[in-house]
Design brief:
By secondary structure, the protein is α/β, with parallel strands linked by helices. The chain folds into two domains: 85 residues; 286 residues, 3-Layer(aba) Sandwich (Rossmann fold), CATH 3.40.50.1820. The protein is 42% helix and 12% strand. It has a seven-stranded mixed beta sheet, sandwiched between helices. It has a two-stranded antiparallel ribbon with strand order 3-4. A hairpin with a 2-residue loop joins strand 3 and strand 4. Helix 1 runs antiparallel to helix 2 and helix 5 crosses helix 6. It is globular, with a radius of gyration of 23 Å.
């Protein structure tokens, strides 16, 4: 659906996010005000985050006014039809909505915000006997496979005669939630595919590789048929054991919490999405996060999740990748029980390549094409 047809929804979504922001900022400012007024030293316990007397009345008035204006605007949006007034498209709309979903996507989904991206599969070209599913990374959209004039999916369609299918999803939701939904959508895709005996391969970039692993896990649990048609999995810069930037962000939040003066600022860090916190260790299952404080400082407590049996798995990493360092991208872990069992011959490191180089560098595509050029026998045969 284009932004032109969604203009009222987009405006409503942006306004909701703005009012949510005012609410959160008011809480942070009041908590800082209360702690500074009540705590003589910059260390120790803070207050309950509420001021007293006239000051509390002022903050409550801000909240009341914010909610009142929000309610009025919601009513006005209900009277605005797509055909009424101008609906000019905003530049780069899909890109910034994808970024918002990556950073705040779980909140957008939970609050029913129209900016929340529903998972969709987009087929390019005629249906053929081989499908390559491409799953993008955090804060991205399926359109961003195109970089510097190159798109891995389009190139594979040209060179190998496959049908590319692009996944577009809310990357701020938990990886396991996206994985489970993707598994169901792939089941429906294969059931409705008009070509018999279709083979399937998946290419996951960054977080997309974690979503692919999660989808395989839930497909196996549910006994879904598409998993038997899966022949290859290719991971491009996937942080199988986490990304250091998220671990650093979690440490920063813990440091802010040491002082009651700065502790309210840690609430801003707690706004980051479930998808981002899943990248701390590379969580792919509900058990990895359920019934836990995802912002707590703790070690790797994931349930070990092996790769799907009988699927040829390939890992491509960049030596200059700061988002998915080589060890994480190749599935290596200091605990041998957590290391993923990859064939060393299926691992490739691009010297000097950074995270985004994996999307368009010729040497990366050459390796990707080689990985997918020969289709191994399907396990259902």
């Amino acid at each position: 659906m284009s932004l032109r047809t969604r203009s009222p929804s987009v405006a409503r979504g942006v306004s909701r996010l703005a009012f949510d922001g005012v609410e959160q900022l008011t809480r942070v400012v009041e908590a800082m005000h209360a702690n500074i007024a009540a705590t003589p030293l910059p260390l120790g316990r803070g207050t309950d985050g509420r001021t007293r007397g006239l000051t509390r009345f002022v903050y409550d008035s801000i909240r009341f006014a914010n909610r009142g204006v929000h309610a009025a605007l919601e009513g006005a949006f209900g009277l605005w039809s797509p055909a009424a007034g101008s609906a000019a498209e905003l530049p780069h709309s899909e890109a910034w909505v994808s970024v918002l979903n990556g950073v705040l996507g779980d909140h957008l989904a939970a609050s029913g915000n129209p900016l929340a991206i529903p998972m969709q599969l987009r087929r390019v070209g005629e249906p053929r006997s081989r499908i390559v599913v491409l799953i993008h990374g955090l804060c991205m959209s399926e359109r961003q496979w195109l970089r510097n004039g190159h798109d891995h999916g389009e190139a594979l369609a040209r060179d190998l005669g496959v049908t590319p299918v692009y996944v577009h999803y809310n990357s701020g939701r938990h990886v396991s939630e996206n994985g489970r939904e993707l598994a169901s959508q792939l089941e429906a895709l294969l059931q409705g595919w008009p070509v018999p005996n279709t083979e399937l391969a998946i290419v996951g970039y960054s977080m997309g590789g974690l979503v692919a692993r999660s989808a395989c896990h839930y497909a196996s649990e549910a006994g879904q048929a598409w998993l038997a048609r899966l022949t290859q999995l290719v991971f491009l810069g996937t942080p199988h054991h986490g990304a250091p930037l998220e671990r650093g962000g979690n440490w920063a939040a813990q440091i802010l919490g040491v002082s009651p003066y700065s502790a309210p600022l840690a609430r801003l860090g707690a706004l980051r999405s479930a998808g981002i916190t899943d990248l701390r260790h590379g969580s792919v299952r509900d058990e990895d996060w359920r019934d836990r404080d995802r912002f707590a400082r703790e070690g790797d407590r994931r349930v070990a999740t092996p790769l799907p049996a009988g699927v040829a798995c390939f890992l491509l990493a960049g030596s200059g990748d700061m988002l998915a360092p080589v060890a994480s991208a190749l599935g290596r872990h200091s605990d041998p029980r957590r290391s993923l069992a990859f064939d060393p011959a299926h691992c490739w490191i691009g010297e000097g390549l950074d995270h985004f180089d994996l999307l368009d560098r010729p040497e990366v595509y050459a390796r990707l094409r080689e990985n997918l050029a020969v289709s191994p026998p399907t396990r259902g045969d």
